[in-house]
Design goal:
Elements: H1 2-15, E1 20-23, H2 30-36, H3 48-55, E2 71-74, E3 109-124, E4 127-131, E5 134-143, E6 147-149, E7 152-163, E8 166-170, E9 176-178, E10 181-192, E11 198-214, E12 216-238, E13 241-257, E14 265-276, E15 281-293, E16 297-310
Antiparallel strand pairs: 1-2, 3-4, 3-5, 3-16, 4-8, 5-7, 6-7, 7-10, 8-9, 10-11, 11-12, 12-13, 13-14, 14-15, 15-16
Length: 312
Amino acid sequence: MKKGLFLLVLCQPVFAENYKIHILKEGETLSEILWNHGYKPLYGENNWVDKTLKMNHLQTVQDKEIKKGFPIILPSKEDPSRPATVTKYKTIKEVKYVNRNNRYISKHQEVFLKSGITSLNGEVKSNNVDYSETINVGFLVEGKNDYRIGSLIYNFDGELNYKNSSTAKYNYESDLKLKPTYGLRTSMRLNKSTLPFEFGFSYKVEEESIVDFDEKVNARRDQNHWVGFRLNKKNINVFGNLLDYEGIYEKNFIQNSLSNDKRYEASRFSFKVRDNITDSLFTEAILNWTNYTGTEVSQTDSFAFNLIYKIQ
């Protein structure tokens, strides 16, 4: 604590215009403080955690040992060595493509490549349906800059998904062939500095095939429009790993049968966990539970495991 006070007295006159001081509160960690103040990315050589530790003359091992009341000097986001991560809202249309001189695609979004395996199970007329595993690929786009209206902070993200064709077996019937699944989602993330979590809303269009029973077992094809509410909490320390958790509740409000089957209503709950392996590589596990009414399908549940790579 004496060292912290010494740093505060020594640095405040010099950096008062470009640097700010944050007094550590009970339960806070350096990574959480930086994240909540919009310093991204957190980890890696010369990124915000490393830079802040060096500025405060702290070692990496001391990151989680700093006590309540310790004054932390936060670097200026206007540092010419790197761009600011929180800016005034202007436009998200300015795009730069990858070339030899810079590795980023956009000034305003981070783009990720996503690939993994999904395992799906279902229940029709109280009988289980065994679906074959599918390979899923897609792109994830997340807003790089947070925007502000008063005390409300907001941002946007989107996702494009594809799952390959598969087969399904119902009782002793022959295998049914299912067409690929396509999905497009956009969502808004909202937060306030006083809240320990983010929340927001999502909209998704999805075209998929599932097994149903209408006089006989069949593979139906539907297009669903989903609207949802999401809650997420980032940087939860679990056994030394910083994990991101997210829960999403969705309800289909438009359902079109592409195979002339009867219409249904559905609700879905998803739970996601993401782990940062490196600054550009992540793992993600997703559990989905979907309930149906108005059809012989009672429910489906799935588990997906994905690798996510930041391509900019």
